[in-house]
């Protein structure tokens, strides 16, 4: 980084954001315990995770406005305080609705943290160091959601679901204190207007889509609960898209998609992330529900791949500075497809050791390409479009995570409904959906350009 104070600030912000993103999957292993504690079904309990990711996604474009309007220091301290408040509420909640509300408050804070970290790194990192710096950020963005089920599995084997909130508290308090002491007052010179109608439209559109997809396993497709909500969601989202192209103060600056490499890298990332988060639901579901093993076993199956992700995240960022993004992404996709195919064909009837091996193969593929894709998408944007690019990239990442999870869980439930007394078939179908999404990612990734190619085109 160009300034020691900025470097210290990035460390503090990455630390806090790590726990914000960790919470996106921390509750996954605890869903069966929540169902028992509050007597709720699968369709209701999944809002503990999907509600978090949806609110998180909606807060990210709001942050694009806030970054232009307010000081970095004030925004990050506010985001950390909000996240702390949601965590406290979750720890003391006695009704299921308050657990969901607590998760959504957490998501507001975490959704504000994520863009701040990216914008700080992209704006102030030296060009030749962007890959390495983004590799450090990858620890928060890509390692934390993978390690979440492992952490919660260990906790739930000894303690109640409340400790999934309690264990986070001291780390967030430490982040808040460090942010107050370390973060500088980085000046800004913009006073944009906030697009409230756009936020309302996209909130309703995405909520309707996600609710409709979540209801696939409990209602007929052509019912209002499924097809009706999906149709409403599509229409409202299209209205949002059209209005954002013409308004002078868009909630999301869709003109970032005029930069073709940003569009391609973002689409590939969305497809990959959908499978990554879907997998964090599939494995606990397989191990705890169908193999009747403990939450601890479920967490340990994911642990080797999570450790690999944490170890190699910085290396993958450095590789972007040396190897073409096309080679990295195609290598990663090939490895990820192999691991997913093994999960689909063999994994449902395998031992925890075999499951852990296949998951580690998948994580090797993921860690090879996630940071390079993010660096490629954001690092090529004009300076003044970086906040909008960060907001759009991370919003679509979280939307892909929530929708991918909803589709995969619905597919598992549907297959199990039509193939009774054979739960592993539904899990296999879930893995096959992940494989299909990865194959689509291969097709899109064919349009990635290397840095020399881009330089030649612009010369």
TrEMBL record:
Residues 9-453 form the Major facilitator superfamily (MFS) profile domain. GO terms for cellular component: plasma membrane. Keywords: Cell membrane, Membrane, Transmembrane, Transmembrane helix, Transport. It comes from the Bacteria. SUPFAM superfamilies: MFS general substrate transporter (SSF103473). It is found in: Cell membrane. The chain crosses the membrane at residues 9-27, 47-67, 74-98, 104-125, 132-155, 161-184, 196-216, 222-241, 262-283, 295-316, 328-346, 398-419, 425-446. The keyword Membrane applies. GO terms for molecular function: transmembrane transporter activity. It is a multi-pass membrane protein. This is DHA2 family efflux MFS transporter permease subunit. It comes from Candidatus Levilactobacillus faecigallinarum.
């Amino acid at each position: 980084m160009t300034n020691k104070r900025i470097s210290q600030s990035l460390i503090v912000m990455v630390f806090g954001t790590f726990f914000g993103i960790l919470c996106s999957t921390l509750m996954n292993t605890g869903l069966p315990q929540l169902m028992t504690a509050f007597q709720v079904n699968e369709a209701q309990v999944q809002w503990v995770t999907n509600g978090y990711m949806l609110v998180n996604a909606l807060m990210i474009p709001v942050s694009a406005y806030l970054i232009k309007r307010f000081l970095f220091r004030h925004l990050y301290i506010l985001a950390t305080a909000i996240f702390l408040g949601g965590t406290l509420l979750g720890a003391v909640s006695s009704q299921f609705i308050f657990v969901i509300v607590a998760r959504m408050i957490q998501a507001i804070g975490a959704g504000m943290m994520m863009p701040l970290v990216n914008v700080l790194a992209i704006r102030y990192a030296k060009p030749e160091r962007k890959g390495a710096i983004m590799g450090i950020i990858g620890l928060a963005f890509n390692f934390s959601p993978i390690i979440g089920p492992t952490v919660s599995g260990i906790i739930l084997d000894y303690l109640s679901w409340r400790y999934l909130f309690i264990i986070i508290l001291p780390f967030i308090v430490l982040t808040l204190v460090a942010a107050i002491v370390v973060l500088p007052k980085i000046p800004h010179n913009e006073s944009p207007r906030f697009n409230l109608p756009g936020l309302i439209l996209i909130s309703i559109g995405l909520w309707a889509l996600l609710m409709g997809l979540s209801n696939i396993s409990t209602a007929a497709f052509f019912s209002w609960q499924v097809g009706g909500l999906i149709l409403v969601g599509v229409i409202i989202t299209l209205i949002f898209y059209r209005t954002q192209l013409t308004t002078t103060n868009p909630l999301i600056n869709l003109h970032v998609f005029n930069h073709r490499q940003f569009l391609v890298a973002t689409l590939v990332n969305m497809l990959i992330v959908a499978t990554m988060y879907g997998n964090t639901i599939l494995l606990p579901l397989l191990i705890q529900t169908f193999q009747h093993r403990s939450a601890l076993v479920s967490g340990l199956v994911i642990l080797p791949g999570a450790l690999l992700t944490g170890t190699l995240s910085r290396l993958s960022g450095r590789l972007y500075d040396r190897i073409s993004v096309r080679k990295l992404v195609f290598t990663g996709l090939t490895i990820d497809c192999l691991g997913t195919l093994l999960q689909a064909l063999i994994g449902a009837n395998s031992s925890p050791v075999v499951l852990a091996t296949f998951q580690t193969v998948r994580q090797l593929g993921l860690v090879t390409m996630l940071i390079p894709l993010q660096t490629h998408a954001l690092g090529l944007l004009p300076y003044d479009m970086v906040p909008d690019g960060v907001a759009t990239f991370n919003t679509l990442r979280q939307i892909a995570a929530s929708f991918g999870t909803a589709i995969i869980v619905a597919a598992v439930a549907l297959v199990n409904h039509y193939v009774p007394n054979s739960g592993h078939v539904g899990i296999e179908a879930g893995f096959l959906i992940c494989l299909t999404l990865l194959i689509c990612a291969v097709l899109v990734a064919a349009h990635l350009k290397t840095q020399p190619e881009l330089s030649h085109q612009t010369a």
